[in-house]
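Blackboard transcription, Thursday session:
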Amino acid sequence: MQHPTSFLQRYESYKQAVEGALALCTPQSEPETLYAPMRYTLESGGKRVRPVLAMMACDAVGGNGMDALYAGIAVEILHNFTLIHDDIMDAAAVRRGNPTVHVKWNESAAILSGDGMIAIAYQTLLRSSDLKRLRELIDAMNIGILEVCEGQAFDLEFQDRASISIEEYFRMIEKKTAKMLELAVKVGGILGGGSGTQIEALCHYAKAAGIAFQVQDDWLDIAADGAKLGKTIGGDILEGKKTFLIIKALEQYDSLSAADRLLMDEFLAKRGLPAEQIPAMQSLFERNGIFAEARTTVERLTKEAHEAVDILPDGAGRTYLHEFATMLLERTH
Amino acid sequence: MQHPTSFLQRYESYKQAVEGALALCTPQSEPETLYAPMRYTLESGGKRVRPVLAMMACDAVGGNGMDALYAGIAVEILHNFTLIHDDIMDAAAVRRGNPTVHVKWNESAAILSGDGMIAIAYQTLLRSSDLKRLRELIDAMNIGILEVCEGQAFDLEFQDRASISIEEYFRMIEKKTAKMLELAVKVGGILGGGSGTQIEALCHYAKAAGIAFQVQDDWLDIAADGAKLGKTIGGDILEGKKTFLIIKALEQYDSLSAADRLLMDEFLAKRGLPAEQIPAMQSLFERNGIFAEARTTVERLTKEAHEAVDILPDGAGRTYLHEFATMLLERTH
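(Written on the board underneath:)
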């Protein structure tokens, strides 16, 4: 999709401010095994979705986006801490095309550098120019961290359970995926001087957009055009992950054909399927309207995100949030 | 040593307040794999050294110790987070006579519950009745966490290095062992309305007392009367740890006897010695005055701790800090 030049320019200038300031937030000191993994992770790029979103949320409530720079970077640092620790738990060897921290160094370095990044995130937040709402900011950070841990714990628990309801799935991704976006708009909204109602609207927006993002992520993993993203098609199927698609298929298990039921049984029993069975799973999703349901869900949630911010002042800031929600779906981050 | 009744009573009443309030700070909610390990760890008792110390530091600057209750508990929670994560890195199977979290659950649960405890520590701090110096409190927490991570990283790095200077050793234990005591007195001093100079004095006190504690811990590990603590004598020697004693012995390597040099060479080459060689190592330490040096160092640091708080108002609060520093050396915690 084509975004207006003004949005793209704003995004780019905020992103550059983030890159510049982030370099100052990363300690250069000893011990090397603590700080080198932090720099490695934080300097590995990415779209800096969370800090830019924090800054745009600050704009959208009538503030000056740059006032949310350090708070946004704090959220980016937290996001990266979760990646390092999740990669240990998921035994992931590669992240953004590079070896993960626990592979490049070792597990202790990955645990410790992630821990230290939490403290650095709070330190970075304290660099914000205006701290009169510090208590609210700290409270938001605390809840953000705790819920992202809850999300990861639910995700791990679900891997060992045969049946997950769609409500449980949504609760899990709301915490695991959407929470850091919600934290970003919350700190941005606070630093922009937003009211309680405005901040609630921003959080509603980020939650809907974050869940839409994850449902689409589940869907693109096995959709034919996922290949464009340079990812293995069907990685989630190989790993036996209980995605939106799998849970939806299990919801209608009783009305599936005998062959489809067998395929689902095999997926559950073996905790995943070999690559040659991915086309059969694609066909199952296609024939049973599950791809269509994913698409509808993403559209509904995106609309919900757009509408949530309708109470904010009409202006460029609000438009940027609309663009942002759309951009989130354009991948890959 | 016999402590005055007033100190023991004060200690006990603060400890009870900590136990009562701590139970309220530990979430009871789902997911179970996140919160059960937290409760397991926080409810496993201990002397609650750090929160009681925070409360006594608050008293010592003229405040009301109970005002530092939640801040002290925040430090206790941080201390317990470090235990859970350190136990993973050290592959420790037992802590306080119980299986460690990564053994009783699994490593993912141990990583996640430790992470979540950091957020809960900040949340607990926010329960304090007076938050007008919140920025200072948060800053202290951030630095405390970061330095305790630095201490652990140095400790792990030192295990892979042949030679460690005594200055490096002190820097490491200052961060790994003393920092959480320093954080305790700092938040206590802030909440007691202490001045910058008073808080500096409290930190000096806690640092000296913390280092004394660790040197004595190294020493008791292999001293004959260590058995009283119910610990294996010479555990550090078996594990090849570079303790105060080992570093001091290596400092005078050139003047050791040929047999002693051989023993030290073997310790370094094999990263530890078998149990039957522990008496030889004890004899080495004894004959070369290293036990005496440990004893002198502990005495010097304890004196330093006592003197550091001489600038505080004369009264029961200051006396309690003197008692506290002595008590710390009475083990075991």
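Lecturer's comment: The first strand of chain A starts at residue 94 and ends at 95.
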